[in-house]
Amino acid sequence: MSAPHLILASKSASRRAMLDAAGVTYEAIPADIDERAVEAGLEGASPPDVAEALSVAKAAARAPDHPEALVLGSDSLVVVDGKRFDKPNSRENAAEHLRFFSGKPIELHSAAALVRGNTCEWSHASRALLHVRELSDDFIEDYLEKEWPEVGHTVGVFRIEARGVQLFETIEGDQFTVLGMPLLPLLEALREHGVLLR
Question: Which residues are catalytically annotated?
């Protein structure tokens, strides 16, 4: 019996890189959903629940077109001082985010979900805590000069695999959560669903 076809409903380069490095065979077909509309129905939900719901929504958006496939959705969200941050909408907005993050811990929630047909067969959220050092205005300007617009596609205004690592003093949590997907629980789920060998 052949393994189920896996579709990644994301355009994230870091999520593709994680799956590639882990030897997972998949097809990337990004989903385009209205994240704010999904969140509007989640009033009062916890950050990990919101991240999971968005992951499910992304996978569910692609699943009807591929009823025999497992569709993988994933999402990350950032909370600092109790305030939720989305991706910056401009370089100036990115600088504002970084000034707010300076000297504070970033709570990062990364989630993933597997959907087949109309059913969510698995979902999971993981948390990482990234302690941002005190950032000078000169550093922020130099950092964005080198990292924009790439970091405009990330909720925390950083790519940990690039210059973003310079933002932090310490990191609590696994590297995959920081990169944007709870990879180890996902790999176990893929083994359970026959996508990977046990």
Answer: 75
